[in-house]
Amino acid sequence: MKLRWRLEVGLASAVFRFFGLWSGAGRIMCGRLFGFLGRILVAKVRKRTRANLRIAFPEASEARIDQLMRDAYCSIAKGSYDFYWSGRWTKEEVESRIQWEPESLKSFESAYRAGKGIVLVVGHLGNWEFVSHAIMLRGMQLNAYAAIQVNTLANEMVEKIRKRFGAKFFAPRMMNSPDMLRCLKKGEIAGFVADQNAGSRGFFVPFMGQLASTHKGPASYAALSGSEAFFGVGLDQGQGVYRIEMIPLGRCGRSESEILAFTARWVDILEKYIRMYPEQYFWMHNRWKSRPGPDSIIVERAKSDLQPREKNAVGVERKP
User: Fold this and answer.
1) Which of 45, 138, 172, 278 is the most buried (most CB within 10 A)?
2) Mean pLDDT, each 10-residue run in order, the chain (320 residues)
3) Would you list the domain boundaries of the chain?
4) Do the beta carbons of residue 264 and residue 300 sit within 8 Å?
């Protein structure tokens, strides 16, 4: 095992444990520290973050873009801090940091009790790891794909926390495996964090003003299984509390047009949430790296029923 890997994991653990001495205040201090460091370290990531924010908010001032960068780094640090400690807090302490939106809980549990399986799509918004915790702590079985970290020591630590409450994870190389379909047939949940660049083989869907290559997996599994589908998000409410919201996507038919429409629908919902909570999105991904070619499938923009309300500082609308 590489010395560098040990140092990376040791340093991260030490930082989270150190700030943990101050409980809630430590979480905020941790976020502020990484919000500051993010502006001065890793120039490549900083450049990509700024470019992505400029694509998403072309009307925003440079000062606003700088603020969003700081807030995004801060949000990631606080989310990582909470995830790390969720492997050490008691079950009751983790539960106290989860707040289900009542209608979401009712519709999601009702679909689960139907026994036909659920396809769940989430993006890198808020704390996606706490969505997994929230589901498992309600007694529902989640199965999901998760990328394997290059740092094997970090991968072991993350995997242990992810599986603490019984969630099951598959490697992305198993995307065509029948295992996930078997899970759906057993009435369980198949989860996909699906908002990263999908390369030349993805569907090109309008996202934040630009076409973005998008994974076909959620729509394909929803179509093959006939299961109900939801878009899920865990939004940071402050003090390490996350509000879990589940937006019904319905079922997905097997025709190409239905699969494309399903994909466009969840991407549109994700975009609406990002415009409500831009500081909680993971802007570091190279989301718009792949560009459509002559044989690419380009999807028309969907219009979801999600209706945001209150306006935020970027000039877009936001729920209270």
Assistant:
1) 278
2) 83 88 83 77 86 96 94 93 95 97 98 98 97 98 88 91 95 69 96 94 94 95 96 95 97 95 96 97 95 91 59 42
3) 3-318
4) yes
3-state secondary structure of 133: helix
From residue 24, alpha-carbon distances to 33, 44, 89, 241 in Å are: 15, 31, 13, 11
Residue 224 one-letter amino acid: L
Closest to 210 measured CA to CA, from 54, 48, 44 = 54
Residue showing tokens 């109900």: 228
What is the model's pTM?
0.90
State which amino acid sits at residue 272: K
Six token digits for residue 61: 């001032």
Contact between 246 and 108 (Cβ < 8 Å)? yes
The C-alpha R_g of the chain, in whole angstroms, comes to 19
Instruction: Give dist(CA 133, CA 162) in Å, integer.
Output: 8
Rounded to 5 degrees, φ, ψ at 213 are -65, 125
